[in-house]
Amino acid sequence: MANTHLRLHILAVAFAASSLSLYGVSASQYIGAVMHRVAPVPSQCGDRILQEPEECDDGNRRSGDGCSATCRVEYCGDGILSRFEQCEDGNRKENDGCSASCRLEYCGDGVLDNGEECDDRNLESGDGCSGYCKIEACGNEKVESGEQCDDGNTVSGDGCSDHCAYENLCGNKKVDGREECDDGNPHDNDGCSRTCRKETCGDGIAQISEECDDGDGDDSDFCSTTCRLPRCGDKVVAGGEECDDGNAYSGDGCSATCSSEGVCGNSTVDRGEDCDDGNRDAGDGCSGACHWETRTSSSSRGRR
Length: 304
Hints:
Layout: H1 2-20, H2 27-35, H3 297-302
């Protein structure tokens, strides 16, 4: 079987050699140079006895264990990945992803590789060397562990200090950092608060121009969405009102106190009613339609 493979390999070499004749290299020269590396597998390879032309013999014909299946020494840089290697790129160069000792090069391996600014053997940030092997420093435009801000410089007075902390510059008439506004004074109730936040209805803080501010955006409670206290006649049913028709008149279905009207039997004499005794029964002086009941003459005579 081995001899068959050898014959096939020799034929392939011969074909390549014939092609090289175009460049002034004879077939015999090429075959002689190549056959030194592709010599037939010695019949004794794998018997644990080192004999010519073997470079090694570990008692088997398996590659990847330091001695190849053809009894050749396997080494880092030979282009063949052995079980002792993490990688094999066919060279012994550093900083190309696979080291000169055939170990993978990566951030966190403790070796400063190409493209890394630092490598402290871990992937944790906040210790001076970030999780992607870049030097951590205030002023690099990246908010890293321990920093509140980073505006790309180490100058104070621009909202982010020289040690990457927010600066409290409220009142300098310049909107800095986290400020929403800055009107140049330390006063509230002027549209911009003393902490440089916009003052608006619904922020939960009752300003001078507001009657209330509960910040909940609900008109049906005791503070409207326009930050006004509810009042009967404002056309908003709120604060315990049964109705609100926008006026302070009774007799139109909604009373002057914003209670529902026009219901016979509610004990309130509403517009169109002569009486209201709290029920809608007839024969008690106030009819079921809330009008006085007229006594008959016979009943009047009977009561004399």
